[in-house]
Amino acid sequence: MNTPIEIEATIVSRPINSLALTFADNPQPRCPVVLLLDCSSSMQGSPITELEAGVGQFYREMASDPIASMSIEIDVITFGDSVRKIRSFETVADTLAKPLPHLLASGMTPMGAAIRLGLDDVRQRRDYYKRQGVSAYKPWIVLLTDGQPNDEWQTPAATARGMANRGELTFIGVGIGSTVDMTTLGQIVPPDPGAHRLAGLQFQNFFRWLSDSLRVVSTGSTVQQRAMPNPAEYEWKL
Amino acid sequence: MIAFLKNLFQPAPQPAPVQSFAPVFAPVESEIPKIHAVTDDRGVEKRLAGMLARGGEGTIHRLADRNDVLVKIYHPEILADHGRRQRLQGKIADMTASSALRCHDRIAWPLVSLFSRHDGEWCGYAMMTRSGVSLRELCGNPMNFGKTAPGWHRQHLVRLCVDFLDSIESLGKGRALPVDFNPSNFLIDLKAVRMNFIDCDGYQFLGSSGMHLCEAILPEMTAPEVLRRNGWRESPVAPASLRFSVGMTLFYILNLGNSPYRHRNGHDPVQNLIAGTCGLGKGADCELPRGSCYRIWSHLTFRLKDLFIRCFREGHGNPSARPSIADWREALLHYNHCILKGYADASLIPDRSKSSGYQGNSES
């Protein structure tokens, strides 16, 4: 091999001025992830507590990965007595300093409105990436619910399925508990990855699978998607 | 030789469109067991320790009783594909027989084929550990660069580039060429400022039984003519195509994770790569997004800029125009000289783009 270049000791590195770096200075392709969380009254008690713990764990696991933390951007929308965006798209690294709001369970299940808001957020975020000259992975929407929608869901569901069929979206539905309407959930989300029933309250296992899957995404190509880790290994599916 | 591997050193028997989205969940086949232990071809059993990493093709494990040996086990859905399993097994068998590369100190080269303890079927291979921070982790996040590589400046990046070129040359002499230039597959020894290569699935290798092709690539770093015809799967990738990927990697290193196909048009860099919409240019002709990417580019020497423009603009449709390894090495050594003399900014990200009054203008 050729003689390596000798590093000159008198050259002192000037630190990178992080404050001067902009959104576009992070060259990592972004992956927008929307969490749609059912906070209706039927989620009171252990379900909402475990769900909140799972979401917190998800943030921590993403933050611990040096690549994913600069790539994955999370948007959190709850639906119950109203549809509320409790966290707008930011990378996990940017979010770390701000504690997540507590999840409170009350009200009905306006799932259709939540899906509509999630889809709008995804579209607007992708337009923002384009204006900034930043590339992006296929967005993910993750819907967790223990019931059935009590508003108009067919239109946003059709939009989401259309996007999924065109390779523009990954939309997974997770049904919680024994009263969830899996038939309707299966009509809302596209067949791949489809609707799946959560084993008990295994939110932490589910979010561990989700964070490992997004790690796979964040080290891959924006135009190819590899198969995700097998959910059976994480024991979150019934 | 390590005792375990010494016993196993027997000649191994016998060998778009670009967008593709695999199903999110691989087919779950309950009869494919999880592999906990493996054997070599003499039946000596070794147990696997916890998983270290997961990639697109398989998982990486330590052995339960060895820290200096890693094992790659292919994913069940890959092993279940009989044709693919046969191709991989043949490729690994030829690779393990390559005396030129099994002793290479920079490459995690397959040394021994491994078989599942459960059913005796081939499932992966063992290799020596190669350590370091991935190039993606080092350069893909400027905000963390100072924490990941404290004290590094431009000269470190240049040295890494030259080391990378040296390794590509030595691999070629061993009849192996990397085709998948995924930055996750280059591990950087931060202390020695050198690059280790991992994941032999990304290699095209001429073995005793014939040419073994690369199974998967990262489109972001791959020549357009290869992407257009899904070419890496069907026929050997030509050296001129690999020169494109070498250029992409050098740009990735020097420009801290950016692509020359980032463009103010905002389109995805892979789409720009295929279409030939390159952001590089001199002065007002440069269409890179304004920010750190542009500032770094502006401070590169004219020789380097010329080579990058030749590689990605003229060389986009004309592979023979792409610079050779010797061209890059000469330009990098000149760049290093300019840094030492103070003609080129040594900082990782200059505070301002280079003005025409900059001292180094005539020299560079």
Describe the structure.
- The complex is a heterodimer of chains A (238) and B (364).
- Chain A is of the alpha/beta class.
- Chain A has a single domain, classed as von Willebrand factor, type A domain (Rossmann fold).
- Chain A has 7 helices and 7 strands.
- In chain A, strands 3-2-1-4-5-6 form a 6-stranded mixed sheet, with helices on both faces.
- In chain A, helix 1 packs parallel to helix 7 and helix 4 packs parallel to helix 5.
- The longest helix of chain A is centred in the middle third of the chain and has 22 residues.
- Chain B has 2 domains: 120 residues, 2-Layer Sandwich (Phosphorylase Kinase, domain 1), CATH 3.30.200; 229 residues, Transferase(Phosphotransferase), domain 1.
- Chain B has 13 helices and 13 strands.
- In chain B, the strands form 3 sheets. A 6-stranded antiparallel β-barrel of chain B has the order 2-3-4-5-7-6.
- In chain B, helix 7 packs antiparallel against helix 9 and helix 7 packs antiparallel against helix 13.
- The N terminus and C terminus of chain B are likely disordered.
- Chains A and B meet through helix 4, helix 7 and strand 7 of A and strand 1, helix 6, helix 7, helix 10 and helix 13 of B.
CATH architecture of the largest domain in chain B: Orthogonal Bundle
**What is the string of SSEs of chain A from the N terminus onward?**
EHHEEHHEHEHEHE
**Uncertain regions of chain A: pLDDT < 50 for 5+ in a row?**
none
In the residues of chain B, how many domains can be counted?
2
Q: What is the name of the CATH topology of chain A?
A: Rossmann fold
Short description:
The complex is a heterodimer of chains A (238) and B (364). Chain A is of the alpha/beta class and 238 residues long.
